[in-house]
């Protein structure tokens, strides 16, 4: 496969600063004279202009990556910070992206501006993240995958392998191919490719095997296996019963995956076979659009806002549904993304919104009940409208913007705090909205009415409705005391304080599309669809425009006025061709109402783009321009999604100072904030971008106007008196209830304290008794131990006499076995001589065979070289002949083609089409010839590779010959070495024979002593086992007692909780009774007053008023009681949940403590075993001491009877070899000679024995200390489990 080289710009850096200048990359194109800096600050909305649904993905915990407009956005939903990854300068838009498993790499698919590079490109970028403050530092492009020779279709899906060494990409129909790329080498290499046969929406690697790939889309689910270069084989699973339309998939084990379908079923595939169909996972078989893996199983979501968690069962059912939830608005969830710590999951819906679902709280959430948005689905502040945006308004005093849409929503977004303050839904579509300068009122226009709303803390409150229909444009005056409403051709002016219409303006012949207040709210400028621009006086409601500025060929869409230059900036679309501009051209013009303007007016309009005919004649309201007098520039939105920055005032021949790529479709609204430091743009792609603006006018930064700070009125909001009264009453009730609870809690604390003190005293007495009992038992055991040791010493003395007689018998056996070993040695020597002769004969035969094989290989090599040369010459001749034939055919085809072209010019149109078909066939034949030539070239390359392989084989054969020679030399050396080793081994054998004889004597003696000692130790081991059994029984009894005590404590706590609940209920009932008694007393008092009235009419009316008053009070009390009861039940459920979680935690702690107790008892048993082993060692040492003492006594007796020996010690084992058996019997030491030691050696042995005794005593003391420490820890752990009772002091033990 051919390798594709990387472009030279691999080290391109993207601008990732929060408020930095947008320069380079695909963000902006800057003029050298530009003094304005525009940087990305924030954005609302999802998706771009790509051909696939990209969704969202996590880069880290709390950090999201998603597409918006033409770029990618990185958003931290914990710190509310934005970063942007801008497209390349040569790219039109971003199609799709993928994030690596380790979150350090991202792959981006882009559509290019020109077709010479194949129309699309995939680039791999590194992402550098940090946890302090900012979420994304920088990115760098490290790989580029061009598709210029592969496909013109865009890459719609891609995925990384687990080790990030491979990348798989899939192109769109009709050229749907799977391409496998190798990324760990530079330049990157295309490994293999294969045709899918149908549309693919998702591709992924198996995390456990990068050789397995899965693709889903439409009716296809395929698992591909990569066996090597150009070997990518699919295996489609055989499904049952019906065909499915697949939407997404995940891997959950090696060669095992789960696929989601539009039919609402989940398919479990194992080893390329359908193993299980999980049906009706969502209600009414709603489609499942996305699925993501988690540690417990997987999460899937789809239509109706349904989201479900499936847990792994590890049996035949594979998975079972754990819990299901549903969003409040019930829109389709099209994308899911799980955070790396699996605490949150992001749900992206098809209404251009996203929400955070808490996976960490899923165990305590109840799916059947209506969930609080703060508990389950928390909306993210980056969502936007799901339909056409009809209006955008910016507040003067507060940092808020207001948008409306045909999706029946009005959103208020704070761009400094970066959060959505109010999202209000209405019953009908909203056509226009205007925000009061204070930000505390809104005017909203619907299809059949217009209304004013007051902005509360979390919602809107209707104040006044106006009988105005089909209003499309609204504008508040800068002072806020008036607002204008454009209704078709008329403009109504209302007083915003008393809601009266002070006048209406008539003069337009077509729909009014733009309004602007000027000259301190004394005049209004309006622009209409018929091309007219009028200047109105608000007080007289007259038209002041005497020049009649009207251009009939242009449909104006936006008009802006500059108070300093007194110029109008107008954007309009040509209804017909005009002034050299085509129909549908969007142009920029400047006008003035002055006869002698201070600044020149543009004679030729500036072209901003060309729209389609439908859009050119559309009567939708837009605002595509904004004038900044602070920065001396104007901002324009183009039909291609760009923000153009021109100098202001405009002059002939001006070009854009700055071009910012933002939206993927036309820009419909462009507005500036009051301080002109923020720019807002809305596009037809349902996204909103916020830009931060700064300029360097005359060197230093230009200072903002003398406005008040935008944060001065941030915390100001209206509150309804009704809500305020309800909150005050609720606070009073809660404070009373809190005081009652505190009293009850204090009483309970006192009771529990007394119980705790009594229990502690009781436990102290019990533990003291148990300690005394254990101490008495340990004293008894020590006495028994001393008694057993004394008995063992007496038995050892009695057995010493028997050992000497056994030693004499062993000496006789030693002599006989020595003779047998010498005979065996002679036999082994003869066998060694025979083996050396056989080895020399075999070596001689191997040498002859190697010489023959060498000659045969030389002949074979010469024959192969001759054959290869002949085949090479033959192939070269064939290649030249085929090349000549191809060139001749090409020349003939060109001549025929030219002749046919001359004939076709004179023939009828039908004959021309036939000849075109014939031309295409000829071109195909020429292409076939070219392909044959390429095929021959490939065959020649293959033969060259074969030749190279055979030469390598010959070289390897020569290397093998050299290796054989080296091996022969090594064998000779080995023979010499072995002969030397044989001689040395003979000497060692003689020495070992002497040593084995001595050791056998000692072994027989020690075995006999060991058996005797085992008989003596057996009864002690039985006593130790009995003691261990008694200790285990006592420990079991203590554990049972502690368990019973804990159960009683839990039962007592449950009963006390029930008593508390009953006390609360009785207190509430008492309060109810007191309230009713007060009502009855008031009723009796009023009835007594009425009894004194004389006239019956007054009596009747008085009784009626008393009854109505009593009913109202009764209703209020019942409502309040209902609320209190509801709140009490809610608090009770919450406390019960907490209690259940606390009981679970306590049970886990109890399990851990029991495990610790078991571990410590096991350690105690190990210590007991070690003590027993030390006892056995002590006994063995004491036996050795007794043997040494006996030897000393024997030596003393011999010294009396024989002459004194030399002071030199006789060696226990001789190292000189013996020549014969007779010599062996003479030189063999007897057991008596072993005992003949001098006084110095005897003193050393006695000193060593004393040291061993001291060491054993020290170890026993340490063991006793360790046992006391272990018992102390066990008692402390037991007391900790029993409500942390105090530990006894060491004196009590």
Question: What does the model show?
Answer:
By secondary structure, this protein is an alpha+beta fold. The protein has 7 helices and 59 strands. A 5-stranded antiparallel β-sheet has the order 1-56-55-54-53, with no helix packed on it. Strands 3, 4, 5, 6 and 7 form a 5-stranded mixed β-sheet that branches. The longest helix has 185 residues, at 721-905. The radius of gyration is 49 Å and the shape is flat.
Rg is: 49 Å
| Number of helices, counting only DSSP H or I runs of 4 residues or more | 7
Biggest beta sheet attributes: 5 strands, antiparallel
Strand order of the largest sheet: 1-56-55-54-53
Task: Tell me what portion of residues adopts beta-strand conformation.
Answer: 25-35%
């Amino acid at each position: 496969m051919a390798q594709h080289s990387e472009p030279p710009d691999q080290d391109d850096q993207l601008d990732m600063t929060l408020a930095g200048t947008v320069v380079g990359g695909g963000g902006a194109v800057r003029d050298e004279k530009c003094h304005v800096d525009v940087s990305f600050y924030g954005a609302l909305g999802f998706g771009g202009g790509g051909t696939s649904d990209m969704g969202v993905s996590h880069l880290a915990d709390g950090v999201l990556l998603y597409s918006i407009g033409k770029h990618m956005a990185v958003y931290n939903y914990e710190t509310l910070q934005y970063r942007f990854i801008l497209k390349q300068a040569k790219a039109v838009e971003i199609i799709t992206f993928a994030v690596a498993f380790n979150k350090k790499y991202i792959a981006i698919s882009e559509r290019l501006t020109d077709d010479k590079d194949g129309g699309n490109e995939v680039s791999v970028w590194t992402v550098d993240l940090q946890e302090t403050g900012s979420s994304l530092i920088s990115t760098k492009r490290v790989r580029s995958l061009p598709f210029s020779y592969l496909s013109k279709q865009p890459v719609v899906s891609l995925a990384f392998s687990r080790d990030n060494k491979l990348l798989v990409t899939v192109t769109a129909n009709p050229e749907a191919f799977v391409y496998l790329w190798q990324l760990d080498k530079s330049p990157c290499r295309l490994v293999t490719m294969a045709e899918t046969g149908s549309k693919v929406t998702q591709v992924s690697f198996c995390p456990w095997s990068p050789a397995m790939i899965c693709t889903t889309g439409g009716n296809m689910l395929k698992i591909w296996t990569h066996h090597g270069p150009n070997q990518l084989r699919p295996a489609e699973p055989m499904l049952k019963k019906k065909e499915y339309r697949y939407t997404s998939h995940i891997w959950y084990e090696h060669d095992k995956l789960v696929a989601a379908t539009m039919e609402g079923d989940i398919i479990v595939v194992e080893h390329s076979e359908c193993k299980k169909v999980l049906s009706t996972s969502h209600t009414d078989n709603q489609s499942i659009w996305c699925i993501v893996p988690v540690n417990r199983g997987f999460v899937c979501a789809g239509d109706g806002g349904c989201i479900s968690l499936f847990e792994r069962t590890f049996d035949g059912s594979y998975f079972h549904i754990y819990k299901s939830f549903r969003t409040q608005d019930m829109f389709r969830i099209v994308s899911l993304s799980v955070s790396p710590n699996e605490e949150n999951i992001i749900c992206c819906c098809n209404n251009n919104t996203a929400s955070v679902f808490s996976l960490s709280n899923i165990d305590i959430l109840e799916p059947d009940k209506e969930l609080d948005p703060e508990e389950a689905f928390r909306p993210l502040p980056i969502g936007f409208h799901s339909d056409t945006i009809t209006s955008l308004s910016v507040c003067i005093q507060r940092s808020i913007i207001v948008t409306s849409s045909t999706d029946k929503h009005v959103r208020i977004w704070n761009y400094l705090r970066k959060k959505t303050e109010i999202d209000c839904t209405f019953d009908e579509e909203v056509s226009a909205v205007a925000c009061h300068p204070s930000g505390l009122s809104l005017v909203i226009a619907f299809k059949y009415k217009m209304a004013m709303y007051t902005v509360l803390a979390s919602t809107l409150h209707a104040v006044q409705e106006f009988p105005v229909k089909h209003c499309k444009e609204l504008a508040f005056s800068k002072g806020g005391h008036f607002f204008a409403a454009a209704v078709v051709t008329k403009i109504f002016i209302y007083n915003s304080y008393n809601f009266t219409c002070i006048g209406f303006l008539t003069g337009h012949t077509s729909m009014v599309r733009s309004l602007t207040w000027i000259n301190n709210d004394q005049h209004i400028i309006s622009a209409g669809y018929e091309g007219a621009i009028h200047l109105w006086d608000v007080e007289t409601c007259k038209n002041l425009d005497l020049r009649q500025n009207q251009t009939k060929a242009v449909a104006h869409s936006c008009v802006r006025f500059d108070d300093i230059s007194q110029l109008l900036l107008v954007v309009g679309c040509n209804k017909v061709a005009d002034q050299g501009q085509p129909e549908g051209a969007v142009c920029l013009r400047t006008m003035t109402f002055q006869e002698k303007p201070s600044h020149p007016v543009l004679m030729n309009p500036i072209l901003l783009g060309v729209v389609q005919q439908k859009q050119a004649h559309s009567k939708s309201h837009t605002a595509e321009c904004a004038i900044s007098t602070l920065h001396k520039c104007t901002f324009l939105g183009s039909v291609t999604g760009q923000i153009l920055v021109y100098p202001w005032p405009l002059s002939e021949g001006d070009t854009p100072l700055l071009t910012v790529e933002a939206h993927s479709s036309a820009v419909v609204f462009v507005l500036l904030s009051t301080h002109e430091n923020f720019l807002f743009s809305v596009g037809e792609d349902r996204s909103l971008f916020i830009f931060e603006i700064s300029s360097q006018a005359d060197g230093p930064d230009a200072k903002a106007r003398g406005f008040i700070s935008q944060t001065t009125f941030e915390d100001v909001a209206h509150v309804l008196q009704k809500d305020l009264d309800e909150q005050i009453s609720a606070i009073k009730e809660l404070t009373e209830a809190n005081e009652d609870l505190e009293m009850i809690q204090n009483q309970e604390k006192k009771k529990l304290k007394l119980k705790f003190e009594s229990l502690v005293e009781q436990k102290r007495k019990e533990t003291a008794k148990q300690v005394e009992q254990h101490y008495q038992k340990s004293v008894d055991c020590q006495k028994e131990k001393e008694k057993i040791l004394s008995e063992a010493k007496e038995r050892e003395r009695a057995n010493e006499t028997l050992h000497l007689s056994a030693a004499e018998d062993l000496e006789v056996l030693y002599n006989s076995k020595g003779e047998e070993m010498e005979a065996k040695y002679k036999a082994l020597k003869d066998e060694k001589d025979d083996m050396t002769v056989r080895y020399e004969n075999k070596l001689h035969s191997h040498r002859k065979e190697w010489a023959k094989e060498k000659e045969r290989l030389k002949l074979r090599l010469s024959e192969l070289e001759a054959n290869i040369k002949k085949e090479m010459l033959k192939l070269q001749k064939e290649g030249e002949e085929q090349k000549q034939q191809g060139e001749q055919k090409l020349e003939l085809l060109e001549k025929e083609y030219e002749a046919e072209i001359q004939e076709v010019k004179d023939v009828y149109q039908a004959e021309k089409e036939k000849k075109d078909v014939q031309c295409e066939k000829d071109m195909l034949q020429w292409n076939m010839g070219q392909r044959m030539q390429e095929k021959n070239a490939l065959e020649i390359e293959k033969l060259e590779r074969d030749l190279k392989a055979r030469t390598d084989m010959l070289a390897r054969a020569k290397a093998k010959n050299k290796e054989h020679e080296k091996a022969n030399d090594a064998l000779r050396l080995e023979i010499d070495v072995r002969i030397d080793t044989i001689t040395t081994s003979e000497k060692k054998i003689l020495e070992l024979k002497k040593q084995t004889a001595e050791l056998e004597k000692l072994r027989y003696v020690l075995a006999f002593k060991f058996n005797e000692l085992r008989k003596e130790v057996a009864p002690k081991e039985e006593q130790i086992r009995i003691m261990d059994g008694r200790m285990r029984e006592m420990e079991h009894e203590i554990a049972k007692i502690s368990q019973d005590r804990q159960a009683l404590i839990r039962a007592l706590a449950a009963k006390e909780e029930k008593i508390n609940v009953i006390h609360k209920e009785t207190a509430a009932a008492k309060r109810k009774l007191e309230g009713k008694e007060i009502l009855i007393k008031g009723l009796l008092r009023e009835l007594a007053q009425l009894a004194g009235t004389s006239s019956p009419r007054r009596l009747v009316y008085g009784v009626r008023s008393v009854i109505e008053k009593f009913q109202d009070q009764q209703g209020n009390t019942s409502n309040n009681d209902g609320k209190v009861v509801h709140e009490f039940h809610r608090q009770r459920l919450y406390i019960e949940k907490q209690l259940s979680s606390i009981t679970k935690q306590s049970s886990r702690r109890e399990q851990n403590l029991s495990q610790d107790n078991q571990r410590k008892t096991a350690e105690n048993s190990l210590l007991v075993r070690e003590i027993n082993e030390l006892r056995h060692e002590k006994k063995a040492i004491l036996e050795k001491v007794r043997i040494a003492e006996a030897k000393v006594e024997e030596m003393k007796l011999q010294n009396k009877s024989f002459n004194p020996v030399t002071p030199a010690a006789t060696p226990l084992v001789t190292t000189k070899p013996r020549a014969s058996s007779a010599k062996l019997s003479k030189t063999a030491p007897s057991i008596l000679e072993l005992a003949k030691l001098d006084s110095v050696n005897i003193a050393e042995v006695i000193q060593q024995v004393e040291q061993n005794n001291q060491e054993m005593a020290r170890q026993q003391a340490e063991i006793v200390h360790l046992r006391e420490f272990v018992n102390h820890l066990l008692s402390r752990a037991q007391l900790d489990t029993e409500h942390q009772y105090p530990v006894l002091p060491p004196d009590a033990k």
